[in-house]
Design goal:
By secondary structure, this protein is mostly helical. It is built from one helix and no strands. The longest helix has 103 residues.
């Protein structure tokens, strides 16, 4: 009987060691999964930041060229406005002289439809 209990004890110890090994393997697997998940998360974050930087760079380039375009249009508008104001100032004197000439140089004459009553 002693050998039978000893065999049972050995089997129980072997089963206990196997259960410990399985538990340890599960712990290692959980640690590896957790580590892989953290590494994947870090890689995803790095990729996201890289794409965000590229987007910001492209956006800045697009807005920068748009900003230059806006400045260019504004400068052209100012230039045209100044040219129009200069032309208006030059033409103003000429138009005023012509108007005053017509007002001051009155030539009295009878209207062609006027008939003398005799």
């Amino acid at each position: 009987m002693a050998s039978q209990t000893q065999g049972i004890q050995q089997l129980l110890q072997a089963e206990k060691r196997a259960a410990e090994k399985v538990a340890e393997a599960r712990k290692r697997k959980a640690r590896r999964l957790k580590q892989a998940k953290e590494e994947a998360q870090a890689e995803i974050e790095q990729y996201r930041l890289e794409r965000e930087r590229e987007f910001q760079h492209k956006q800045q380039a697009a807005l920068g060229s748009q900003g230059n375009l806006s400045t260019e249009v504004e400068a052209q508008t100012r230039k045209k406005l100044q040219a129009m104001q200069g032309g208006q100032a030059r033409g103003k004197d000429r138009v005023l002289r012509q108007l005053l000439t017509h007002v001051w140089d009155v030539k009295p004459q009878l209207h062609p439809n006027y008939h003398f009553a005799i």
